[in-house]
Write a structure and sequence with these properties.
There is one protein chain. Helix content is 13%, strand content 52%. It contains five helices and 16 strands. A 14-stranded antiparallel beta barrel has the order 1-2-3-4-5-6-7-10-11-12-13-14-15-16. A hairpin with a 7-residue loop joins strand 3 (138-153) and strand 4. Helix 4 (88-98) crosses helix 5. The longest helix is centred in the first third of the chain and has 17 residues, at 2-18. The model is unreliable at 1-27 (pLDDT under 50).
Length: 368
Amino acid sequence: MRRHILWLCLIVAATVVVGSAWADFSDSAVGNTALGIGPRAIGMGDAFVAVADDVTALYWNPAGLADSTGFKWHTLSIGGAVDNLDVMDQLADVAYILRLETADGISWNDFDELVDATGANPIEAEGSFMTGFALGPLALGAYAQSSGTAGLIDVGGLGTQVNATIRAVGFGAVAAGYGRQINKRLQVGVAVKQAGLGEARVQKVYRRGILGPPEVLGTIVETADDGDTDTALTADVGLRYRPEENLCFGLVVRNITSPEFTLNLGGTTGTIITQVKPTVHLGLAASDPVEGITFAVDIHNFTAQNGATPTVHFGLEKVISSNLAVRAGMRDSDFTWGLTAKLGPLTLAIASALNYNDMAAASFTTDF
């Protein structure tokens, strides 16, 4: 085990060469740095490139499908993260007002709340979803990642004008994957996918009259509601290499064909052409089967593509029994935890940040 820890320390030290070990986190779904797929990975701080050995390997590293046996159905996996869930009720009010076609439904109190809300920073949110199944080394599934911002900016003079905005970007795919054992040490895999990119923006400008009776609430002086999606065919390739039985290196290159997406957002935004460049993700996992412990470290987006910086992730998993496992990790500056409980053929996994208000994820999996 000491030798394994030495390898992990060397990998961490190598990250200093490419940048800060705690690089600024990007909420860009296109940069593949949004919330990871599956609560097992999220509980380990998204350090899963070398660990991936379940249905979520379709996303994390298709080479991990080579370890899959029997029939496994990842029925549902959902997750979400926000900067501060305590103000989500305020954003719900904002979303309601954004849907109004006229200012007639806005009360003086609503307008005051909008002005007050501008004192807070816009909220950044992330989400993930996956469903799929594996039959031995073959897998089929769908997944999506999203990131976005919502909030209020640009308060006009004397608090009489407010620009309310919500913007979201999503990247997802329907994928078919296959993993193969080349020899005792090497596994390779590929996931062919129909990927999709979407973007939506809602923006409205409200102006409140400061003169006149209270029933003169104000006017909506500008509105924009733009959104579009596009799809393209691409693939991910991965490998896992075991120099010794309890040590595994992982590598996955996502979107190897550099798919291009054209979004016609209309309005003042117009047409946006986005090319998603291939991203390289590295991982190392060391395990102690006797103690039931796995320790992992990842470097995501190693080559800093798609406007996102590299990020470093750590994860620890402890198998307590055949029916229970617990996890801990660090994802950027967030500490995460998770657990898995198995009841017969049904497996329930959950994950969260230390503050459950900031991050939560859950999944149901069935094995036959």
